[in-house]
Design a protein that fits this description.
Organism: Persicobacter diffluens
Largest sheet: 5 strands, antiparallel
Strand content: over 45%
Distance between the termini: 99 Å
Order of helices and strands: HEEEEEEEEEEEEEEEEEE
Pfam family, one: Por_Secre_tail
Helix content: under 10%
Shape: elongated
Protein name: Secretion system C-terminal sorting domain-containing protein
Oligomer: single chain
Radius of gyration: 25 Å
Number of strands: 18
Structural class: mainly beta
């Protein structure tokens, strides 16, 4: 009788715990990106326990000698400290977690470790991401970093209007300022976080050479020439 009760308890324990844990879902482990272009990797976490847990998400480079930038977006929060603590409810799935990587120098393959630590149940999950980094054609950009990228003006020469494509990756204030050859500002165009291109109107400009500058948080980052032709 005693052995039967122990066996029943063992079966109950196995059925109650089998398959439970914290699960990590990543896309392909071998990824391709371009130098200087931010690349986002979605991270999905699932708490299969029937109780709340606290987990630590860590991301660490195995190429620390290279100039890289890694951060995690959790909803609208931006975390660049390399570690994030999350409290998960029983059965909860978190699918608004994204790791963002920007490789600013070197074309060597990058290896990043994503580690999940379940503090209550002493469970660790670890996955490795491998990035193949390709060179980027800088002639297509006037500015590129982990916060934003701005393409060159097209068309150029311009008749009545031109376009700049851009991507904002963080909450910076950016704008395009147009000057004439004397340095007098004659136009200003904000880069909205709700769009990815800006129209530069030059219909009332005289024919000639002008310059447009990218201003980020009050600082000039790049200046290029445009030609207005009728």
């Amino acid at each position: 009788m005693k052995h039967n009760l122990l066996f029943i308890f063992f079966l109950f324990f196995c059925s109650a715990t089998y398959g439970q844990g914290i699960f990590l879902d990543l896309p392909e482990k071998d990824l391709s990106t371009s130098q200087g272009v931010p690349f986002e990797v979605p991270i999905v976490l699932y708490n299969d326990y029937n109780h709340n847990v606290k987990v630590i998400v860590e991301w660490k480079s195995q190429s620390i000698e290279l100039k890289d930038h890694a951060e995690v977006l959790f909803g609208k929060r931006l975390i660049d400290s390399g570690k994030l603590t999350i409290e998960m409810k029983a059965g909860e799935e978190i699918d608004d977690l994204n790791a963002r990587f920007t490789f600013l120098e070197g074309l060597e393959d990058r290896r990043y470790t994503i580690k999940i630590t379940d503090l209550q149940n002493h469970q660790d999950i670890q996955e490795e991401l491998v990035f193949t980094v390709a060179p980027v054609d800088m002639d297509q950009y006037i500015y590129l970093d982990e916060h934003l990228q701005v393409g060159t003006m097209y068309p150029n020469p311009i008749n009545t209007s031109g376009w700049l494509q851009y991507e904002l990756f963080s909450s910076v204030e950016a704008k395009i300022v147009v000057h004439n050859v004397l340095g007098t500002q004659i136009g200003e165009f904000a880069l909205s976080p709700f769009d990815n291109k800006v129209k530069i109107q030059v219909g009332n400009y005289k024919e000639g050479v002008y310059f447009y500058s990218l201003i980020v948080d009050g600082q000039s980052k790049a200046t290029r020439k445009i030609v207005v032709q009728r």
